[in-house]
Amino acid sequence: MDSxxxxxxxxxxxxxxxxxxxxxxxxxxxxxxxxxxxDLANVCLNLGIADPPAFERLARRYDxxxxxxxxxxxxxxxxxxxxxxxxxxxxxxxxxxxxDFSTIAGNLAGSAGWCAVSAAGAxxxxxxxxxxxxxxxxxxxxxxxxxxxxxGAVLRLRVGGRDLxxxxxxxxxxxxxxxxxxxxxxxxxxxxxRPAAPWQPPALTLRDAAxxxxxxxxxxxxxxxxxxxxxxxxxxxxxxxxxxxxxxPPFRLxxxxxxxxxxxxxxxxxxxxxxxxxxxxxxxxxxxxxxxGLAVVMPVYRDFGKxxxxxxxxxxxxxxxxxxxxxxxxxxxxxxxxxLDRLAAAGRITLIRHARNLGFPASVNAGIRTAGGxxxxxxxxxxxxxxxxxxxxxxxxxxxxxxxxxxPFSNEATICSYPDPAGGNPPPPLGxxxxxxxxxxxxxxxxxxxxxTAIGFCMLIRHDCLAATGRFRDGVFAQGYGEExxxxxxxxxxxxxxFAATGAYxxxxxxxxxxxxxxxxxxxxxxxxNHLHTGYDALIRRWIAADRLAAAxxxxxMARFAARRRAAAVLLISHNHxxxxxxxxxxxxxxxxxxxxxxxxxxPAAPEDxxxxxxxxxxxxxxxxxxxxxxxxxxxxxxxxxxxxxxxAESVRQVILHHGLGQDASVRGIAAVLGVAxxxxxxxxxxxxxxxxLLTRPKAAAPLRYCGEPNVAGCIACVKIAGDETFEGxxxxxxxxxxxxxxxxxxxxxxxxxxxxxxxxxxFAGVVPEVSPWEDDGIRYRLRPPPRGRRRIVTIGGxxxxxxxxxxxxCAADAAARGLPLEFAVAGASAEDERLMAAGIFxxxxxxxxEALGLIRGxxxxxAFLPSIWPETWCFTLTEAWRAGxxxxxxxxxxxxxxxxxxxRGGLLPLxxxxxxxxxxxxxxxxxxGN
Length: 931
Prior knowledge:
Layout: H1 2-12, H2 16-29, H3 34-46, H4 52-62, H5 65-77, H6 81-94, H7 102-109, E1 114-117, E2 123-126, E3 134-137, E4 140-142, E5 155-159, E6 162-163, H8 171-175, E7 178-184, E8 187-193, E9 205-207, E10 213-215, E11 218-223, E12 234-240, H9 241-244, E13 252-255, E14 258-259, H10 267-272, E15 276-277, E16 294-300, H11 304-317, E17 323-328, H12 334-345, E18 350-353, H13 360-371, E19 375-379, E20 383-384, H14 389-397, E21 403-409, H15 430-444, E22 448-451, E23 458-461, H16 463-469, H17 474-477, H18 483-493, E24 497-505, E25 507-508, H19 515-532, E26 533-534, H20 536-546, H21 550-563, E27 569-573, H22 579-594, E28 598-604, E29 619-622, E30 633-634, H23 640-649, E31 652-657, H24 670-674, E32 677-681, E33 695-696, E34 705-706, H25 712-722, H26 732-745, E35 748-751, H27 754-763, E36 770-771, E37 791-799, H28 805-818, E38 822-830, H29 833-838, E39 842-843, H30 852-858, E40 863-866, H31 876-883, E41 888-891, H32 894-903, E42 906-909, H33 915-924
Parallel strand pairs: 15-26, 16-17, 16-19, 17-18, 21-24, 27-28, 27-31, 31-32, 32-35, 35-36, 37-38, 37-40, 38-39, 40-41, 41-42
Antiparallel strand pairs: 1-2, 3-4, 3-5, 5-6, 7-8, 8-12, 9-10, 9-13, 11-12, 13-14, 19-23, 20-25, 21-23, 22-24, 28-29, 29-30, 33-34
Helix pairs in contact: 1-2, 2-3, 3-5, 4-5, 5-6, 15-21, 28-33
């Protein structure tokens, strides 16, 4: 990314301030890239800016030593030594101590003392003065060991009854190796890394099926950072065919007793497996088989909290006489092993324990063998199963002869995700999960929709499908990912079908097991899956495009929406373009909620390709965030009766029309049909200007300018040249007539400023809008007078042609041409960032609600310039400038001009002033003593 590279280059050249600005821009363009975030946090640290949360987010999510070290330094810079010591303790528990870090550890630990492990595995410990270190292994007192005990043990080092910093040591984390191996044209290849000591390659051994072992040599190459491991240096290795000659496959890549992801593997066996078109279907079974008992098969590896919550929910949810089979796949967490032992001793589970980690597919196969011919419910240990969900799934499984597998809805279940079918929905707690399951049951009952593959997080397999298809191919898919899809496709080829139980819902945390190597394994296995089942990805894409679960999701949305019903509701109608309108709508919704009524927002639902889809779009409902009910979409006017029926059921007592852009014109008549009062809020001039913002082009290629609000004939001529930006095509005369009728029928017409109210009143006789300012200009701000001499001018918000983009570029060009001591920056974004930056104008990138103040202050500007060329009805960015301590310069037009004139917090320029004159004003303007 260019912004990232420019930031790094400036930092390396010694310009930390400039580098910081570019890195901040890069984080706005790529907010989820941890590499940029870490670079920015380190630059701020070097600038003396303490930002512990920036490092903590990275340290907690990625557990990378550099992030923990930065967190320690940030706390120290902030003067918070206890927090720095706590961060040091977290660091020492799971990361090997570099040689240059022991002094820092000793200074921070102070009277607590500290312990750590070297990269070579030696135990290091320093007691406080006069203290004696005592060691306890699994609760038993032992002599202080020189080297680490095996995984699974709990080693505590204590002085005077208190743990040293770093104790108890995370033995598994200190030894853990991330990596993946795959078949390659010249043998096998992959990467490995030891997160606790990322600077050195880990020790790897290749073992064959007969026990022969050879060391794996790394080639010294560090693979480029990617999404699999964005902060972890990955050491590359290759084992050519010549070194494998004479060895017996499958080959296991051993790293400290654990198999590297992707192994054991047999490259020759993979290529010999038959290939079958994924879409092929076998002949469906003619009859529903006799029912068998049910066994839940649940592999367990990490995360005691989620595992415990999963099993406790499961105990309350399973039907009578269900056998619960738990496979402890060599968990590194002693708490999990102990708890499972207690459950097994009490007869609540059947426990299978692996001496070493074998992975999900092998663990599932062990559970299936123990299930003894029952139906099998495969369940991840990070799920929450509510009462009733399993019964619904079983009913679906025996409701159709061809059913092989059944999957419920879930917050995170790829094609079975709800409410957003793309997934990423937050996992609900058990209470909410139970309510969602009840609503799914109410909406869809025992309905079933065929899907191309089950989803392995919660997958019911009918016993006849399991007997015919066989077990998971653990020798192909290693530790997991793709094995259930392979199973389902093999079952499909035998004639079985896979169904979504749309009346069941199970919560799923997702993505907690494998980390960076797991993502790489996922990618590896996806390639194997598509190789074995040709056209698999295309099959899934076709199914997603058909969206066969849409009707079930819609019914679910309807049930969930109805469950939140209140005694009365208010309908708000708006566009989906964000900005000041969205901010005002959110404030209205909060006020309606506070008054005890339910706010319902009707907005245009963005289609898959908004740029290629003309208005009107479907209308969508929500009572909160716009993505809460993606199924509540209405194609208007055809679906108007259905929409009205829903609104009547919600007891809508009032309609607030904020904006109709993007929606079918029929939404404007909803209040009249419902027989309720409508309030109209003025945000722009779409009521009488098809151009919306009173900007015109005298000629097709001419720049935009304020039209001066001519008569109807002038408006008609303007639209003919410049176009209709309401995208309705009504024409000026029809638009005026419609708006006049709407204003006359409205209970209230509300404008945010006197200027906006005057403009509306001038075009509609008898209409006198109420003025209700969006913000309180009586609030006092501490403004900084701009210095004489060089000035940095800050423009705020989303800058487009109507907001003065061309003027800003022209001013920057004039300043550069004349060598003026002016520097321009944009706190925000535009559709033409590259043009702005090419003109020498720094652009921060878009900001979220609540971020503007910090962003403006970070630019260290001297004066705000708001070059909008249309008569804005309010202007939230003017307030942001004042909040940031900046006087503002604007054109003498619209509400911003009235506000600046009334508050004396800036200066006004004549509209149409040439760029050179604007620049001279920006350099010369001074706040008078009355401000």
